[in-house]
From TrEMBL:
Key words, A-Z: 4Fe-4S, Cytoplasm, Iron, Iron-sulfur, Metal-binding, Pyridine nucleotide biosynthesis, Transferase
HAMAP family hit by this protein: NadA_type3 (MF_00569)
Keyword 4Fe-4S attributed: yes
Function recorded in the entry: Catalyzes the condensation of iminoaspartate with dihydroxyacetone phosphate to form quinolinate.
Annotated residues for binding of [4Fe-4S] cluster: 167, 298, 388
Protein name as catalogued: Quinolinate synthase
Gene that this sequence comes from: nadA
Organism: Microbacterium alkaliflavum
Cofactor mode of binding and number, as noted: Binds 1 [4Fe-4S] cluster per subunit.
GO molecular function, one term: transferase activity
Signal peptide bounds: none
EC class: transferase
Catalytic activity reported: iminosuccinate + dihydroxyacetone phosphate = quinolinate + phosphate + 2 H2O + H(+)
PANTHER family noted in UniProt: QUINOLINATE SYNTHASE, CHLOROPLASTIC (PTHR30573:SF0), QUINOLINATE SYNTHETASE A (PTHR30573)
Length: 449
């Protein structure tokens, strides 16, 4: 599914999460946010270690994670209206020399300037459609910009407006930990390249798109593959055709939910905790494993609960509950459906009758869908406004800064992947591209028994 262009029209529901947070903090709204610091500009947190306020604020950030330098004062002081005008003027000046990509989870004030809106891989593919662009400004997080650099041409510069926009889940599996895990698995399984009588090697590594380029490179070197939330089942099927078992990282929930739906018993899905010998399992448990799950998670999707679903059903009889597969297994089991961000969008677009939707994913997307589809009632399962900490680090001030830098001939915040990592990482991505899932229209839910 390609990324989508969004034509913004006046909407009866305000799609801006920032406006809602400002109203809560000022006392105009009686709503609740997880951290009142979200009302401040993200530059207030650039000099501090950590992911910043929001869903990931409690996660431990690795030492040496990218930090953003000080944003010039003129961008910090500019009004919303001034930033909007400056961004539009810079884009008009640059024309086809630049393409701006906006992830579904970006704040509305950034998305309105994006040439394409989509999930991480849709946007990386959108960049491929514009080889004439000298620069790709990726309004997302660090691993997404790395993926765009892997797939774009060498002459194109990929820019991340705020270098502090990382991803706590991607950071939960670093290359040193994964290499150490592989060595310990070799001690259990023997030669990892030696196929058994059925032609299967001991382990095929599978990494979620939400991982660093270094991790993607590791997977490429060891016969593995990348997956997205929309093709995880197809990728696991590909892996099981080649390996006796799968090492799946960094998101345990996507791996567990996908493998469970394929019939893999939970007892054959041990967790690998990188801080424990053999990940905290015995050699016998690992020998019996089908899917070894890395101890990682998305802090946005971990906020959703079965209690929230029960409350939604009690207050809205007939509600259609859709959650992201990064949610915990109990939440996915309690929902009517689970699917990628693009699946959620298409499910709502495909509903032909007015419907009440309770959505378990990042609040910026939910708020935007509610504004775009006033024919439906759409709300976030989590009543507390708590956006992704790192997506929220991208602000119009940073977008204006990097675009005006390009106008002045300066490339700011360029993201590059070294050639030794890029080659095997591209191989893992190419394997994913070749493993296409069967088409399954989201509207099938309406006809399900």
């Amino acid at each position: 599914m390609p990324a989508v262009n969004i034509t913004l029209q006046p909407r009866p529901i305000d799609p801006s999460v920032d406006h809602e947070i400002q109203a809560i903090v000022s006392g105009v709204s009686t709503g609740e946010t997880c951290n009142t610091d979200l009302a401040a500009g993200p530059w207030d947190f650039d000099i501090r270690p950590g992911y910043g306020p929001g869903a990931s604020m409690g996660d431990v950030i690795p030492t040496g994670s990218p930090r953003q330098g000080e944003l010039p004062q003129e961008y910090r002081d500019a009004s919303d209206e001034e930033l909007d005008a400056r961004i539009r003027a810079a884009k008009a000046t640059l024309g086809e020399r630049v393409v701006v990509l906006g992830h579904f989870y970006q704040r509305e004030e950034v998305v309105q300037h994006a040439d394409y809106v989509g999930d991480s891989f849709q946007l990386a593919n959108a960049a491929l459609e514009h080889p004439e662009a000298e620069a790709i400004v990726f309004c997302g997080v660090h691993f997404m910009a790395e993926t765009a650099d892997l797939l774009s041409t060498p002459s194109q510069a990929v820019i991340l407006p705020n270098l502090a926009a990382g991803c706590s889940m991607a950071d939960m599996a670093d290359i040193d930990q994964v290499e150490e895990c592989w060595e310990q698995l070799e001690d259990v399984y023997g030669d990892m390249d030696q196929a058994d009588a059925d032609g299967l090697v001991p382990v095929i590594p599978v990494t979620y798109m939400n991982s660093s380029a270094a991790i993607k490179g590791f997977v490429g070197r060891h016969g593995g593959i990348v997956c997205t939330s929309s093709n995880a089942r197809t990728v696991l099927e590909w892996a099981f055709q080649r390996g006796r078992r799968v090492l799946f990282f960094p998101d345990q929930h996507l791996g567990r939910n996908t493998a469970k739906a394929m019939g893999v018993p939970l007892e054959q899905m041990p967790m690998w905790n990188p801080n424990k010998p053999l990940g905290g399992s015995s050699a016998a448990e690992l020998a019996d494993a089908r899917v070894i799950l890395w101890h990682g998670f998305c802090s946005v999707h971990r906020r959703f609960s079965v209690d929230q679903i029960d409350k939604a059903r009690a207050e809205h009889p007939g509600v259609r509950v859709i959650v992201h597969p990064e949610c915990p297994m109990a939440v996915v089991d309690a929902a009517d459906e689970s699917g990628s961000t693009d699946y959620i969008r298409r499910a709502i677009e495909g509903a032909t009758e007015p419907t009440t939707f309770a959505i378990g994913t990042e609040v910026n997307l939910v708020q935007r869908l509610a504004a775009d589809h006033p024919e439906h009632t759409i709300f976030c399962l989590d009543p507390v406004v708590c956006p992704c900490s790192t997506m929220y680090r991208i602000h119009p001030g940073y977008l204006a800064w990097v675009l005006e830098g390009l106008v002045d001939g300066e490339v700011l915040n360029r993201i590059t992947v070294t050639s030794d990592v890029a080659e095997p990482a591209r191989l893992a991505l190419e394997r994913m591209l070749a493993a296409k899932p069967p088409a399954a229209p989201a509207a099938d839910w309406e006809n399900a028994s």
